[in-house]
Write a structure and sequence with these properties.
It contains twelve helices and three strands, in the order βααααβαααβααααα. The chain is mainly alpha-helical and 324 residues long. The chain has a single domain (21-309), classed as Rhodopsin 7-helix transmembrane proteins (Rhopdopsin 7-helix transmembrane proteins). The relative contact order is 0.14.
């Protein structure tokens, strides 16, 4: 890295999604609703899986629990800050805070991309090699896939941050979004943008594109295997599940590819697309991956039943205490 760190910028101004105060209030209500629903649904999935030993030892639900955790982290890396800034007169973020947001955003985002590929591999093995499923998706292999997703996300974000944090920022400090991200922050660096643009395309852009193509091929092979069998209720369910997964994968990877493979061109739609993969997709994942699953719904029903029973017993104890 030949750049000398001549950074004089101590904070960045986040321009947000709209300059209108009325729009800020509407966006605050929207982001708050999305974040609350994301927290509730993903925490519910984590509790349901952790309380059901049968699901906890199932490879599919083991990976799903980690996906729910990553969705919680992904949403929490941007949305709480956005909620605060929507009510602030002049939303700013410190230089270190901006770099930290970039680090965690790409750590969780990169890890989730790899985990989604691991989940597609799990479904591929289950349908194409059912007799070898137990050995290919043992607990050790599942733990290895999860660790690989975290390691991949850490490597991805470390490379991104190494370039960005060492670039000099000496002048403009207005980020045209509601959070710090690589394309927008790199535009503000007082240096030839070409090395930063190459880094972003080869790191974020290519990873997003390769991951998306890999998932399309994986689900294509799964659907091909399902269609080659005799029609049955299980085959129809598998096709429906794969189609739903592909919708979520497209909504997650599509905006990332659109934003990161073209470093110079910026469009107003970029802000809307960034909302999808930071706030909307973490809410859709539990609905698509978990709530359409019969076993998951049963586990959620048991969890809700235990909660209601505990509440009923607590109320009865309170009434008995008052009566005595």
């Amino acid at each position: 890295m030949a750049w000398g760190n001549k950074t004089v910028v101590t904070e960045f101004v986040l321009l947000g999604l709209s300059p209108s105060w009325e729009a800020h209030l509407l966006l605050f209500a929207l982001f708050l609703s999305l974040y609350a629903a994301t927290l509730f649904s993903n925490l519910l999935i984590l509790l349901a899986i952790s309380q059901d030993h049968r699901l906890l030892h199932s490879p599919m639900f083991f990976l799903l629990a980690h996906l729910a955790f990553l969705d919680l982290c992904m949403s929490s890396s941007t949305t709480p800050r956005a909620l605060f800034d929507l009510l602030a007169q002049r939303p700013t973020i410190s230089f270190r805070g901006c770099m930290a947001q970039i680090f965690f955003l790409h750590l969780f985002g990169g890890s989730e991309m790899i985990l989604l590929m691991a989940m597609a591999y799990d479904r591929y093995v289950a349908i194409r090699h059912p007799l070898r499923y137990a050995s290919l998706m043992s607990r050790g292999h599942c733990v290895g896939l999860v660790l690989a997703s975290w390691a991949g996300g850490l490597l991805h974000t470390s490379v991104q941050l190494a370039f960005t944090v060492n670039a000099p920022f000496c002048g403009p400090n207005r980020v045209d979004s509601f959070f710090c991200d690589i394309p927008l922050v790199n535009k503000l660096a007082c240096v030839d943008p070409y090395p930063l643009e190459v880094m972003m395309v080869t790191n974020s852009g290519v990873i997003s594109l390769v991951g998306f193509v890999t998932l399309l091929v994986s689900y294509g092979l799964i659907l091909s295997a399902v269609r080659s069998r005799a029609p049955s209720e299980g085959a129809s369910k598998a096709i429906s599940t794969c189609t739903s997964h592909l919708i979520v994968v497209t909504m997650y990877f599509g905006p990332c590819i659109f934003i990161y493979v073209r470093p110079k061109a910026r469009f107003t739609t970029d802000k809307v697309l960034s909302v999808f993969y930071t706030a909307v997709t973490p809410l859709l994942n539990p609905a698509i991956y978990a709530l359409k699953n019969k076993e998951m719904r049963a586990a959620l029903g048991k969890l809700l039943g235990r909660f209601l029973e505990s509440a009923r017993q607590a109320e009865m104890h309170r009434l008995r205490t008052q009566g005595s």
